[in-house]
Each structure stands twice: as structure tokens, then as C-alpha cells.
Amino acid sequence: MKIACLGGGPAGLYSAISIKLRDATHDVTVFERNRPDDTFGWGVVFSNETFDNIASNDPASAQAIREHFAYWDDIAVHYRGERIVSTGHGFSGIARKTLLLLLQERASELGAKLRFQTEIASAGELAKEYDFVIAADGLNSKTRNEFAHAFKPAIDTRKNKFVWLGTRQRFDDAFTFIFEETEHGWVWAHAYQFNADTATFIVECSETVWRKFGFATMSQDESCRTCERIFERYLGGHRLMSNATHLRGSAWLNFPRVLCDTWSHENIVLMGDAAATAHFSVGSGTKLAMESAIAMADYLASEPTLQAAFAKYEDARRTEVLRLQSAARNSLEWFEDVERYLHLDPVQFNYSLLTRSQRISHENLRLRDRDWLEGAEAWFQRLAGAGDNTIRRPMFAPFRLRDMRLKNRIVVSPMAQYKAVDGCPTDWHLVHYGERAKGGAALVCTEMTCVSPEGRITPGCTGMYAPEHERAWTRIVDFVHAETDAKICCQLGHSGAKGSTQLGWEEMDAPLKSGNWPVMAPSPVTWSERNQRARAMTRADMDRVREEFVVAAEMAARAGFDMLEIHCAHGYLLSSFITPLTNWRTDNYGGSLQNRMRYPLEIFQAVRGVWPAAKPISVRISANDWVGAEGIEPRDAVGIGRMLQEAGVDICDVSAGQTSVKARPVYGRMFQTPFSDRIRNEIGMATMAVGNIYEPDHVNSILMAGRADLVCLARPHLANPYWTLHAAARLGDRGEAWPPPYYAGRDQLYRLAGSGEPPAGAV
Ligand SMILES: Cc1cc2nc3c(=O)[nH]c(=O)nc-3n(C[C@H](O)[C@H](O)[C@H](O)COP(=O)(O)OP(=O)(O)OC[C@H]3O[C@@H](n4cnc5c(N)ncnc54)[C@H](O)[C@@H]3O)c2cc1C
Ligand SMILES: Cc1cc2nc3c(=O)[nH]c(=O)nc-3n(C[C@H](O)[C@H](O)[C@H](O)COP(=O)(O)O)c2cc1C
């Protein structure tokens, strides 16, 4: 077959090598517009684990590359006058130029033809002469543009500015991040050694800071001199150098995140940066390009037709590429938002940096560097008031809100049971909440408990509006306090336009088959076409509902609850005041976010007035309506958090969605945690994170990185009331108390988990 590789970067050259290795009879030509040893950029990094695949594809080129690797194990972070080092990260670096020269040599040796200084004007024209064209023409791929109608590229130009420089200063002991506060704001560098005498030195900052420095109008030389001044303390008198002769101006760039709908068109396939980019801060662009080259060569050899090979190539590579792009997006967003974290203690800042892509988990960090992680865990426990010598996972650190002391950071998230009779909790609730309180979570939150019969979501919802409700709740709270050391929080709410609907396991949010009651909301909205239209609330309605909240709070106080949560999320009454999707009022309660928050805040103030001063109140919000700019977006949630904080709310329970049938949520592990992170770190308010958090590792990394103070788990607690105690056994933590009648079960669990000796007093 006659094959053209358009572009002599890693993707094009490694494609030529991999194809020739599988079938030497293919006629392969690489076209490169530059000369063989012309190259921009400095070094590239590979992580140790990513090189194995490349080594088994072609041991010869891998060996040659390895001989030129600079290795290092440590990551050093310079921040606020400290240098924090963690180890076990296992990276290697090589000069981009050396890598390309080695690949060129190997490709020639295998019989590929290399045509340098040959600019290809059109991949379409090339494709007429060749059976197959691999378009590996890089980030600014002309091929991608030529066939944009087929590839449908989406290019997201990111906010930060960066410049790729080199230096003779040695950074050979660690991959080094340097964060410097300057007269114009923060600027940081990513530095790593890639051969005996040169290191890559990428400088990055926000566009605002870049403008204030005047980088936009500087020459490359002036830009280097300015960066030298910024990082003078770390450069030991060495210069910063630019080799970006192909770029005009100061050579600063914005990173373009490239995604394409499809990677093949007729006999042309896109590869490497032309098809998809991964941010330099996860150092995987070259690996992605080379691994895609391997996959394409494999399928070219194994599949009967070119089209079948393309289909397999896309199928196999797309998931892997998306996985890396998603990690890369997390990482680049962390750098874009870094100013949010610049108040953190160096220990927490370092942890946040190391876990930014969400690829490295808490326990994975322990495998890399146990000493460093234990130091960080001890710091966390000390800060939480657990004493000076405690080394335990962050999930087992105490927490205090007003006078309420929680033994750990796990919360049973509110979950409707739909088992109440006329609003009254039954024995189901006693057993359900009792079990979860015995199961090790520090705080058990009740389901949404409604302040009036018509404020219920379904006929099975619990209430707090009749004396028998108060008695039934008192029995539950008394059990929790007498038999466990968990605390219990009552979630109070009103259903609004989402009321008068079927039980959760019937048809959720659908109207009752019979016996519907009228519903009200800020505006005359319907939850869906099938639900009844709500009556717009009058001021008298608002006064009445406020009084109902007050009466319910008084009953909850008498029942002995340790905490209250006001439900302002998920499209129920108070949430429907906050989101513009359902609040079209023209009075003081509609319009601006401040106006839309007025009624929920009025309720909070009224409830706070009757709730014991020693006990905390939380507010649950939907931090994202998932409908784009028409609804609440995470940045609005920061504004909501700020108003709650100013009003004296103790902690914000940061949920999202369920406010509109039009919502298009983006699910994933811990998918709502970024909203909690943002509120906590932008305004300094305590938060609870919730949503698809199900592993102890998730909880520990969220807490240790400062993305939340408490972590709510809902579905995991339906499946296992003993989630926390089981997590402790699995992790070999012996500090969580079990109910004495269960000691024998506890001891067996610890033995079976192989997590060392059972706790003291074990049978
Ligand atoms: C600041 C920075 C740091 C990075 N750090 C790392 C790192 O540490 N680790 C890592 O793995 N990756 C890193 N990368 C990414 C890495 O450089 C790319 O992902 C990788 O080079 C992609 O390879 P490629 O072959 O697809 O494209 P390129 O390397 O861009 O190669 C494309 C080639 O095609 C040629 N070409 C383009 N158009 C034509 C034409 N019309 N005719 C002929 N030739 C043409 C170009 O001259 C070029 O040589 C970094 C990127 C940046 C910007
Ligand atoms: C059966 C069930 C009932 C729920 N009821 C409530 C509720 O009454 N109040 C509330 O705020 N959230 C409620 N939720 C939402 C959960 O508290 C939580 O936010 C959501 O399930 C995401 O967490 P998870 O991924 O850990 O399940 C409910 C969730 C489930 C699964």
C-alpha cells in the first residue's frame, strides 16, 4: 500500500515506524515542512507507566529513547517561601529534538522515506496519489480545516497564557512547580530537566496578569528577560531561552483544546494533536500521538479494509483519548482557577496540585510517598483538633459546627423514604435512621420533612406539622442519642410546584392518580406538561409558609435534633424562588439573584430566630440548573453562597439540578464536588459535597484537597448503612467505635479485610 504521513512530528514518524514494522512491503513516505533538526519547544515528559506500551511496540526505538532519558521521581512545589517535595512519581524527560532525530533514524532504517522541507498544501490532493494519508500535521492542522465539514472540529481556546522556554539552570532533582507572587499577580513555572544541561521552563499566568506585564507587545527576548526577573531566585543566574522562531511576537500562547466528531474521512485519518490535544500540564500529548500511531498500524494490519481499520482505530482510541482529555481538562482548569487556592496552607495547596487531574487518588499518593502523605494527614488532623500525633485518613477527622461536634466527616445524605402515614414517621423510620446512626456516619440527615400537608412531595413524605409527628421524631432522635454517638439533622422543606406527586418507586414527579392537592410556587409554573399549574404565591401565602417553617423548627428543637437543614434545592418551593427558570415575579422577590434569594433568606432568618443558638443550620442548594446561562450556573452559586454566609448559615450543602425537566447534567464521579470547591474556596464558607461519591478514596481526596468540609453519601447508605464502619475496616483504621453488641462481627470483618489486628478489646 502507498502511505503518506503528513507531518514529521511524533505521530507521523511513529506511524511510519509502526506500519513498517508490521508490513515492510508498505511504501511509506513522511512529509515534513521543516528541516530534520529544526524544532520548536524543548523537552517532553513521559511518566514511567506510559512508556511500556511504546517499548513493546518497538523495543529498538524505545531503547534508543531510553538512553537519552533524564529520570526523576520527585515533584517539588515552591509556594509561599516553602519548597515541598513528594516522591514516587516516576517521570522521564527527553529533548523533543532528540526524540524526533531518533524516530527519524529508526523510520529510515525500516525503509520509510523522509521528505523534509516539503510543505503539503492540501491533504486532499495528497490523498489522490496515495492509498492512505495519515494527517499528523499538529495542533494547527490544515487537514482538519480542509475537511472541517467531515471532522467537525471544536476548538476551545483556554484562558491562561503560557510560553515554552528553556534554561541551563538545573532542575534535575525534581519536576518543579514555582508559584511567584509579583507586583501584577501570580505567575508560575513548570520546570523539568530533559538532558544533561537543559531544562524546560514553561511560564504560565492569567491573561490579566499577562496584560499588566505588557507581554503582549514584548519581543521574545524582552519576554525572556522579564520572566528571568520574576523567577530570579530560582534560576541561579542562568538565562531563559526561547527557540520559537516559527512564532511571531512574544511567543506566548493560549492552549487550544481540540476535539473532533470523527477522525477519518475517505482515505485520510487524523492523528496526534491534529485530532485531539491534552494539556501540557499532564504531559501526555506525545504519548497520545505515539499510542494512536500504534493502534492505527495494528488495525491496518489486522483489518480487511481501510474503512474497517479506521472504524476500529476510532473505537479503540476515542475512549482512551477522551479519558486523558478529561484528566487534562481537570488539570488545566485547576491552573486557570489557581488563584482560588492561593490562600491554602502549603500542605493542602500541594495536595490539591498533585490530585488536580483526579487521576491520582489518595491511596495512590500513599503508594508513591507514604511519609509525605502521612505528614499531610497529620496536618489535617491537627487542624481538625484531633491532637498532635494523630495520623488517620481525613474522613476520620472530627468537625465542629457551633457546639455540635461530629466524630468524622461522613454524612448520611437526606433521602425520602415515602413510608410516612399522614406525615407521621413510622417504625420504618425508627429502624432506618437508627441503623444508619449505628453505621458509623457522624451525621444522619432526615429526608425532606415537610412543613405542611400540602407542602409534602408525596403522600408518603414525613412532616413536622402535627403533635404526633413531633412525638414520632422525638422517639427516633432519642434512640440515636441513647444508642449511638451520631448526630441527627432534620431537613425541612416545602414541595412547591413539585408537590402532589407519586411515591419515589411509582412514577417519580408524576401527579397522583387521584386525590391531588393544589400546589403553589413563586410563579404560575408547571413542573412538566403533566403536572398541575401552581398558584403564584401571594404575600399572605408567603407569610403563612414562613410561619409553618418556624413552627416546624420549634418542633424539631423540642424533638432534640442536633441540626437543621433548610431544603433550598432540587426545584422544591424555596429552590424555585432562587432559580430564574421558575421565578418570574416582578415584585421584590423576582428579577435579580438578590431578589430571588430574599424569600429563602427570610425563611432562614425566621427559623434561626427560634432555633437554639448552639445548634447549626445548613442550607442545601442546587448549584447548577444544568441548562446553561438561562438558569443557575456555578458562578451564581458562589453569589448564593455569599448571601447565605452573610445571613449566618453555618454550612452550605452543595447539590445540583432537579430544577427543570430541560436539565442536561454532566454526570461522573464526584460530579458536583467542583461546585462545593468553588464556594468553599472563593468565599471561605464551610461546605458539604454530594453526588456520586462512593469510595473512601473519593472522600479522602475531597477533604484533604479542601474541596469540602463534610461529605454526604446517599445511595451508598441505602445499600449499606454501615458504609463508614466497613470503610474503616477495609482501610485498617481502628479508631471508629462499633456498637458493643456487634464486636464479634467487627473483629471478623477486620480479620477478613486483612487489615491487621482488630481494635483493642476484640474477642
Ligand atoms: C508547552 C508545551 C509543552 C508540552 N509538553 C509535553 C510533554 O511534556 N509531554 C508530551 O508528551 N507532550 C507535550 N506537549 C505536546 C506535544 O508537543 C504534542 O502533543 C506532540 O508533539 C504531538 O505530536 P504530533 O505529531 O501530533 O504533532 P507535532 O509534534 O506538532 O508535529 C506536527 C508536524 O507536522 C508538520 N507539519 C504541519 N503542517 C505541515 C504541512 N502542511 N506540510 C508538512 N509538514 C507539516 C509540522 O512542522 C510538525 O513537525 C507539549 C506541548 C506544548 C505546547
Ligand atoms: C431515594 C432518594 C431519596 C432522596 N431524597 C432526598 C431528600 O429528601 N432531600 C434531599 O435533599 N435530597 C434527596 N435525595 C438526593 C440525595 O440526598 C443526594 O443528593 C443524591 O442522591 C446524590 O448523592 P448520591 O450520589 O450519594 O446518591 C434523594 C436521593 C435518593 C436516592
Task: Give keywords.
binds flavin mononucleotide, eight-stranded parallel barrel, eight-stranded mixed sheet, binds flavin-adenine dinucleotide, 763 residues, alpha/beta, 26 helices
Blueprint of the fold:
Layout: E1 2-6, H1 10-22, E2 27-31, E3 43-47, H2 48-57, H3 59-66, E4 70-72, E5 75-79, E6 82-86, E7 91-95, H4 96-109, E8 113-115, H5 123-129, E9 132-135, H6 142-146, H7 148-151, E10 153-167, E11 175-182, E12 185-195, E13 198-205, H8 207-213, H9 220-230, H10 232-235, E14 240-241, E15 253-260, E16 264-265, E17 268-270, H11 285-302, H12 306-336, H13 346-354, H14 362-368, H15 370-383, E18 399-401, E19 404-406, E20 410-412, H16 427-438, E21 443-450, H17 467-483, E22 487-493, E23 520-521, E24 535-536, H18 539-559, E25 563-568, H19 573-578, H20 593-610, E26 617-622, H21 634-647, E27 651-655, H22 673-683, E28 687-690, H23 696-704, E29 710-713, H24 715-719, H25 723-731, H26 743-752
Parallel strand pairs: 1-2, 1-9, 2-8, 5-11, 9-17, 20-21, 20-29, 21-22, 22-25, 23-24, 25-26, 26-27, 27-28, 28-29
Antiparallel strand pairs: 3-7, 4-7, 5-6, 10-13, 10-14, 10-15, 11-12, 12-13, 16-17, 18-19
Bound molecules: flavin-adenine dinucleotide and flavin mononucleotide.
The site of flavin-adenine dinucleotide (FAD) has 33 residues, from helix 1, strand 3 and helix 11.
